[in-house]
Amino acid sequence: CHIDNLSLNSMGLVGTLPSEIGNLTHLSSFQIIYSFELTGTIPETLVNIHGLKSLDLTFNSFTGLIPDSLVNLTYLEQLK
Asked: What's the pTM?
């Protein structure tokens, strides 16, 4: 079983995005929109999701810079 699309929009999530998200290596689309309470940095482990085409983390409270390693996501078409 592989997860290829993960959309957790308006779920009221609180805390940080765990680095284990990078273990979902078959994702092509990952969205966490309107959670507002997600804080901390964007995990560098997202680079492990080689086939990621769409990454949308809008309307959250992440801090820091977008990891430079995301430039290695050669299939990434959309980053929000």
From this structure: 0.88
At 16, is the secondary structure helix, strand, or coil? strand
CA dihedral 8, 11, 17, 20 (to 10 degrees): -50
Query: Residue 77 and residue 64: Cα distance in Å, rounded?
Result: 22
Whole-number average pLDDT of the chain: 92
| Burial of residue 32 (number of CB atoms within 10 Å: 0-12, 13-18, 19+) | buried
Radius of gyration over every alpha carbon of the chain, rounded to an integer in angstroms: 12
In whole angstroms, give the CA distance from residue 63 to residue 50: 24
